[in-house]
Amino acid sequence: TPLRKMKIPFLLLFFLWEAESHAASRPNIILVMADDLGIGDPGCYGNKTLRTPNIDRLASEGVKLTQHLAASPLCTPSRAAFMTGRYPVRSGMASHSLPGVFLFTASSGGLPTNEITFAKLLKDQGYSTALIGKWHLGMSCHSKTDFCHHPLHHGFNYFYGISLTNLRDCKPGEGSVFIRGFRKLVFIPLQIIGVALLTLAALSCLGLLRVPLGIFFSLLFLAALILTLFLGFLHYFRPLNCFLMRNYEITQQPMSYDNLTQRLTAEAAQFIQRNTETHSLTPLTYLHVHTALFSSKEFASKSKHGVYGDAVEEMDWSVGQILNLLDELKLANNTLIYFTSDQGAHVEEVSSKGEIHGGSNGIYKGGKATNWEGGIRIPGILRWPRVIHAGQKIDEPTSNMDIFPTVAKLAGAPLPEDRIIDGHDLMPLLEGKSQRSDHEFLFHYCNAYLNAVRWHPQNSTSIWKAFLFTPNFDPVGSNGCFSTHVCFCSGNYVTHHDPPLLFDISKDPRERNPVTPATEPRFHEILKVMQEAADRHTKTLPEVPNQFSWDNFFWKPWLQLCCPSSGLSCQCDREKQDKRLSH
């Protein structure tokens, strides 16, 4: 009929208008992540002496989350959870042994190829995607050119940064994270060999024992071998593991810290400028403020907190550069910016000279590598002027896993249906449409071990947190595991609790006074509900390949990346060459 024929063009126009208005409503997304920044470091979270005006500006123009939680208190698993919206134990990105993060670029472990990152989802929706900064989720599987774990294989169009992490070993004169390993594998064996040689020589000289010369040569050879391997490790670790990449190409090996934050900032700014006509996703994941600490001349010795404070203030400057750029490009109103840290501050970071190189976790106990609040309660700031009302503060429990479903929904991407997504869309909270977090329960893992359960009961202000085990701080009475530089998750390094250690975080955020049956009449009832929730959660965990198995964790020479034409030195500086050519 004529009426029916007229309806068809109108319907087509309606659907086109709907599609266009949806595309126009989709924001650009910038996800800023600091490394090891404590919740007590930014001014907007109470710091009175560190200057963070740009981070503070974000908070005043957006929403500040006061109970924002990392899914893990360590870099690699926390970033895996952030990228996928899933507890890292689901993807095999949680370790069953002592090391909880990757320490070599030529390890074969990493974020599995079947995991779906928010970058993949947004790329499928037409977003341009770039990761600028630290990755720390693996590189290759079987050959050095398969790049199976590389950012470009996980949904990013562009990558500039480091594939591993910033370490003391990356900066000459800053010490080593391997001191404990050196003591066990080098110094003690050499001492034993030395004592054995002296003892055998003395017995031989006194005629009490006839020692064949072959024994002396064997022990000397063993000592020489250990010493050679040790010196080789010291010489080669930095170039083999501390390098900058652009996409699949090494641009600087080893990386230079000179104006490094400025270079990362420039790369992020250029990517944003290149994509003003399309929607873009830009995670900017700083190397600051993980040790080795560094800052440019403009920021060195300017803060009240030594080299750590200088690094924080330089990072804040970088955040300001991005905010200024958005203003210049008139993109601010339609850009969602998220600022966070991958976990709490590393309280045990003290230099050999006694300088404090770790940040502040405010009033909270513990720090990085522990599930005390200081290890997992992190800054969480979101700004989107067109949609989110400025100056809000939300105290509900939220997680860094929530970013995955939040940005997916904003981009119009359906969530994967073949897997459990543990994060929840934050927009109802941010827009004031909901007053309650969708996280009734949260599960805190120490590596692959369920460490604590958090319960925010409906129709209650209480937030219960039950610890199945806690780390043994050393020295006793301190706020960390200073003898091992980081707390571990098993064996003699922890104390198990039966019944679990129970806190009401809403009344005791410092976790100083565990409740007991004498102080809480519902003690056993509360623990029963939490145990049942933990059991239900555990049943949803599939058997997955362990990305931290010893086979996946250790260095494999055939996976090692080196600059082309650099021979055995593995050293080059294309960044300097490119700079010269551009002039």
Compact overview of the structure:
The protein has helices at residues 2-25, 53-60, 75-84, 118-124, 179-205, 213-241, 260-274, 306-328, 373-376, 403-411, 427-430, 523-539, 550-553, 574-582; strands spanning 28-34, 63-69, 128-134, 158-162, 244-246, 249-253, 280-285, 335-341, 377-383, 392-394, 398-399, 441-446, 449-455, 464-471, 494-504, 572-573. With 583 residues, the protein is α/β, with parallel strands linked by helices. It has 2 domains: 25-167 and 243-437 and 544-559, Alkaline Phosphatase, subunit A (3-Layer(aba) Sandwich); 178-236, Orthogonal Bundle (Helix Hairpins).
How would you characterize the overall build of this protein?
The chain has 583 residues and is α/β, with parallel strands linked by helices. It has two domains: 25-167 and 243-437 and 544-559, Alkaline Phosphatase, subunit A (3-Layer(aba) Sandwich), CATH 3.40.720.10; 178-236, Helix Hairpins, CATH 1.10.287. Helices cover 33% and strands 16% of the residues. The protein contains 14 helices and 16 strands. It has helices at residues 2-25, 53-60, 75-84, 118-124, 179-205, 213-241, 260-274, 306-328, 373-376, 403-411, 427-430, 523-539, 550-553, 574-582, and strands at 28-34, 63-69, 128-134, 158-162, 244-246, 249-253, 280-285, 335-341, 377-383, 392-394, 398-399, 441-446, 449-455, 464-471, 494-504, 572-573. Strands 1, 2, 3, 4, 5, 6, 7, 8, 9, 10, 11 and 16 form a twelve-stranded mixed sheet that branches. A four-stranded antiparallel sheet has the order 12-13-14-15, with helices on one face. A hairpin with a 2-residue loop joins β12 and β13. It is globular, with a radius of gyration of 26 Å. It starts with a helix and ends with a helix. Mean pLDDT is 93; it is low at 10-24.
